[in-house]
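Example record

The entry below shows one chain as it appears in the dataset: sequence first, then structure tokens.
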Amino acid sequence: MQKTAFLPDISASARPMRDLLRQLPRLQTDGQGNVDYAKSDHAIVAATGQNAESIARALHMGMGAIGHLLATSAPQIEDGSVDSDAIEALGWLMAELGDLGAELAVMAIQCRRRTGSKPRT
């Protein structure tokens, strides 16, 4: 099995989630409450996009790691060593994290459109 580093690219910020939560209120909104990227400060939009992308990558990699752990722990789940309520809770968590990751990816794309920046590879 190939070893993969489960670390996101955090070149934009060492604490992208914290920084994103602080940046969101600084974005302008339209009359319907949607983010108006064109009216928002360019630097805030750029930083928001970078942080959203970093968080989405971390979520994606973390969800893969959780899925791998669940797959390899199937015998413990089947014999009851792992509580089924814990597995259900992980399922709900993974669903919410998946939705969050998708929304953050959309936000990162919208920020890149506004700033003209390219995605990090």
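Notes for this example: The chain has a mean pLDDT of 88. The chain has four helices and no strands.
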